[in-house]
Amino acid sequence: MNLLWRWLTDPASWEGSAGIPARVAEHLAYSASTLVLAALIGIPLGLWIGHTGRGRVLVVNLVNGMRSVPTLGLLFAAVLVLGPLLGGDIAFLVPSIFVLVLLAVPPILAGAYAGVEGVDPGARDAARGMGMSSREVLFRVEVPCALPLIFSGLRSAALQVIATATLAASVSLGGLGRFLIDGQAYRDYGQMAGGALLVAVLAMLVDLVFAVVQRLVVSPGLAPARTSRRAARRAAAAALSPT
Amino acid sequence: MIRFTDVTKVYPGGTTAVGGLSLTAPTGQITVLVGPSGCGKTTSLRMINRMIEPTSGTIEIDGRDTGTLDPNELRRGIGYVIQSGGLFPHRTILDNIATVPLLLGWDRARARARAQDLLERVGLDPVLGKRYPNQLSGGQQQRVGVARALAADPPVMLMDEPFSAVDPVVREQLQDEFLRLQSELGKTIVFVTHDIDEAVKLGDQVAVLRVGGRLAQLASPAKLLSDPHDDFVADFLGRDRGYRGLAFAEAPELPLRDEPVVLLGSSVEQAAAIAAGDRWVLVVDEARAPLGWAEPGVLTGVIDRDHLHRGGTVARVGGSLRAALDAALSSPSRRGVLVDDADSLVGTVRAPDVLAAIERRPDGVPA
Ligand SMILES: Nc1ncnc2c1ncn2[C@@H]1O[C@H](COP(=O)(O)OP(=O)(O)OP(=O)(O)O)[C@@H](O)[C@H]1O
Ligand SMILES: [Mg+2]
Q1: Within this chain, do residues B180 and B269 fall inside the same structural domain, yes or no?
Q2: Domain ends where: B248, B269, B285?
Q3: What is the pLDDT at residue B253?
Q4: Do B102 and B200 lie in a common domain?
Q5: Tens digit of pLDDT for each residue in A62-85?
Q6: Boundary-marking domain end, from B226, B248, B270
Q7: Counting CB atoms within 10 angstroms of each CB, which of A6, A9, B142, B185 has the fewest?
Q8: What ipTM was reported for this prediction?
């Protein structure tokens, strides 16, 4: 505890290109670019599979298959294979992002697919029956109804990516993983613990941001409860008021 | 007018869901498709708006072959109501109702005003418009489904068991309001149900289908009840056909008798005097609306609402023979109460007089 505190309060830990803010920024940059890429692949694919019902087997196998892949091994393999083809700085960056994207696509894909798949068949039938084109059914009914599951896919992918992005440091890239690797190398346990703590805090903050965005964009009609939040709050306030 | 000409639907698995169906659903009327489960009702209905494509045969709406029209445009001109409601959970009730007008390019203000108007027309409280479907009861959701189908004022409505997911009391309400609405709107409606009572109640004409999507009989409800074409139709219609058929026979002039009445709140002595030895006396309010029967012999004090026997049904003058007969049969005094359109008492009738009227009807079957 002491070591951790000393490291966190040492002004030197917060300065320069190896300081905490810089490492957090790097970590966020890896994670964000990974998530954007994974979402660009996973969401359209998931929506398409859910909408057309084609390729369901793919989703199931992909999701289960990816769970059993050893991430670190894959990372080294990717660096070995892709590194020489690229050269320079990106020789390590591209393989790292590639592996992280592979990790992030399945939960996002599964969320988008399950979201569309789970839309009330009656609503879909009614939408078609009132003359919506296939695109209109997808974008006006299926996607809005699928948003809660799309978000939960994105959120679990985000948590996984932020935690796993520490691995990038093991192939000599930056990010919060540096504190873990360097801390271990110099037997600076305060730095190691600090790095781990920062990863956890970052993951929580990112999840919080997602939660806020989700509340803003998902229709309140999709809330599981029969009563709206406002009604629930009003009821709670009434129950608590002294009269 | 919707005309099926020799329409057949064979599903890929080889099931013949509809086999050579020919029938006409006249403009401005309710045509009910009824039959046992799996007889092809839903398939027939969904072929009209091309949610399902027929294997062969043609379906015309007002003389135009639907097969030649753009499916989405066709559907935008046809109201469609399904059993599960199919409301969009992410949209408010008003936005649900405004869906088709918006698809048709109406401006938002006009679409919302129309939705608000329809909400009231189907008997829903306007404040419900801001709610989401999961905050409504099943019966309310069904009304919204009907309102949504009516939103762009389509001349044709297709309804697939719209009232079967609600309890019997609510169903009856929905049916009554549906009939009231239809009497104002005069849509061309094809209505699917597996409930023969619903079919007979709602239909201007009823098409009974047998498994394999073959037409067993197409007739008015009265004709169906009095003259089923074969054993299948007769079995499907069930019991009490004679009695149920009376619902479609308008009562001729019935010999009404004046009924002595007492006002609610009169003393029991007054009531006994008016009853003049009869065990039962009819109690009315100031507007002469019948409230129930009282038995002065067993009461004391003042006649209030709790004293009234409410078993008797009330029939309307000029209503059906069934209602008149039921009023007589259900009355504790055996005198059936008849009222006018303002619910004010006209007189009473006895069962033998109703039966005599039934006996006097011309022989044979109604057209
Ligand atoms: N998509 C489909 N593929 C294959 N067969 C189907 C399909 N839809 C319906 N069927 C079959 O066609 C027949 C008619 O079905 P349909 O849904 O039209 O019946 P229905 O009269 O509406 O029945 P219910 O009262 O149970 O709703 C049934 O035997 C059914 O199994
Ligand atoms: Mg059906």
Answers
A1: no
A2: B248
A3: 82
A4: yes
A5: 878 877 778 778 888 887 888 777
A6: B248
A7: A9
A8: 0.83
Which H helix or E strand runs over A112? Answer: helix A90-117
CATH architecture, domain A19-239: Orthogonal Bundle (1.10)
Please judge whether B135 and A228 are an interchain contact, meaning their C-beta atoms are less than 8 angstroms apart: yes
Length of chain B in terms of residues written: 367
- Over residues B236-288, the pLDDT tens digits come to 888 787 888 888 777 778 888 899 999 998 888 888 888 888 889 999 999 99
B39 and B142 fall within a common domain: yes
In a domain, B342, yes or no: yes
Residue B105 contacts A, CB cutoff 8 Å: no
Q: Which residue of B has its CA nearest to A124?
A: B86
Number of domains in chain B: 2
Taking the CA of B82 as reference, the closest ligand is 2
Structure tokens at A81: 């294979």
- What domain range is B275 assigned to? 261-359
- Residue boundaries of the structural domains of chain A: 19-239
Cβ contact B170:B138 at 8 Å: yes
Residue nearest to atom 2 of ligand 1 (CA): B11
Backbone angles phi, psi at B152, to 5 degrees: -90, 15
Chain B, window 135-164: residues with a beta carbon less than 8 angstroms from a chain A beta carbon: 135, 145, 148-149, 158
Contact A178, A169 (CB under 8 A): yes
Element at B99 (helix H, strand E): helix B99-103
Q: Do B115 and B24 share a structural domain? A: yes
DSSP for B108-146, written as a single string = HHHHHHHHHHHHHHTT--GGGGGS-GGGS-HHHHHHHHH
Mean pLDDT (chain B, rounded):
91
